[in-house]
Write the structure tokens for this entry.
Amino acid sequence: MSNEINRLTYRASDRATKAMLTLALGYLLFGLCLGTIGGFQYILPDFLKKELAFQKTRPLHVYLVIAWIFTCAQAAIYYYLPRVAGRPVFWIKGMWLHVFLQGVTSLIIVTCFFMGRFGGREYLEFPPWLGGFILLSWIPFAVNFWFTIKPNYKTAPVYIWMWSTGILFFFITMSESYLWIFDYFKTNIVRDVTVQWKALGSMVGSWNMLVYGTGIYVMEKISGDTKTAKSTTAFFFYFLGFTNLMFNWGHHTYIVPAAPWVKMTAYIISMTELLILVRIIYLFKKTVSEAQKNFHSIPWRLLSFADFWILLNLAFAIFLSVPAWNLYTHGTHFTVAHAMGATIGINTMLLLTSVFYIIQEEQPDWFSQNKGLIRSGIWISNISLLAFWISLIGSGMVRLSSKLNNELFAEMMEKSLPWFKLFAWSGTVIVVGLFLLIIPAMKALVKRKPVTV
Amino acid sequence: MVKIAAFLTLFTAYLVYSATVYTYGTRDTIQVKESAVPQIVYGKTLYQQYNCVACHQLYGLGGYLGPELTTTYSDPAKGELFMRTLLKGGGLRMPNLGLSETEINGLVSYLKYVDSTAISYKKPAKP
């Protein structure tokens, strides 16, 4: 009976949540297709060169996959909000307003890219005024978050802190990334590039806070352990992550001629990540045994894969943060390997954890009937991602060696071709694997929920 | 209470650090002639308008399909003529953007300026 009352309390907001999750999965679906086209443009230079040049496929891919990450994280948080707070979402019409604003903004952005209208800034390649629309669409989300949870930060679990930080810093960093429109930033390239790296580096940290927070919430629900999310250790690592979010961005700017202390600060902060790495290795045995115990659970399986990618990427990121190596590795495919490992391996696996956790809660029968397909999708996407990641490391090695030998760019591209082929084909297999997860998930989300009497 | 205090301290440090980066951390070290500024800004606008960042990098920001452009201007194997040729007609991967002579001049001025700031890229000359 109380479960039924709860369901009625959540029903109205859950409808908007599902619409948002479907939108997020749609972003991923189209983002992956455009990424595949972009991948093949590496090995077939004339492929769609006139109709859909790389100048368009890359921003479309980048925008859509970034939109997937933050929209899915927002949708998952919308689903968890009333369950954490024990009351309905504060402003349900605001949720629909959010979905509407987000959908319209995306349509305009995609149209602009197809028409060749750009803002030309890394990651945010759409015309600058659309950044204002994105910020506007986050306002109902922020209102709903704080007014539904009404957090008491003295006792709140760590994921509430993470979500709060993620939202606050999205507003800060998104605004900061548009400082270039002012002459003070625009006319000094060193300042412009440094501030852009600063804003983007921290923006990634802000959505990581949202995504990792959802991962911790699901882990708490599956394991039934409510103490860990309130423990001193959890908060120690939250504050470490928070410090990195704010000050770690500088490792991208070792090659920018800004003041030396900017780099030194970044290097020191980056090295604090070693503490996180040591902890992950220390807990790895426990994590593996937990994973084996709960591997039958799809959300847990996705969490385990995310854990593997966290370990790999963190070790790699620390390696890339050492200035002596960074000087050579920056601006090569090593950086892309890190970005892809993080966005597909960590963020996407954690977000899909939430997607399937929600579907499992909402459509348990459907979920158990489709487990086989979902399992295959998880394995295919993760194995091909490893090949994809290796291909990027290979391309990075070729680029590095060409840099050191002062070879021509064309020569380097020629030598990288085998790696680019592996990159394009393994990328295609990732898409197949993820489609096996996205399509059934979308079907489940649009399916009407069985009525309990 | 400790958690809230820790958050506020770190957040304040972030604000102070950001202001310092915007000012002392990124002070102008390269003097550009006042008369050259409009042409550089025009070139930068074009660089963004044509979304050159999709394929090229400046200080590591951008795509990898084309070469990094930070020091192309002063690169003995490339230089201004090489840049102008590619901007005019495109290349194997580079699309022909149909740029006018004025636009090419703007882009070259911008890339020349970027190159002049790239002291961290260039090895000091041997005595």
Notes: Chain A has a mean pLDDT of 90. The longest helix of chain A spans residues 2-43. Chain A has three domains: 1-148, 151-271, 293-453.
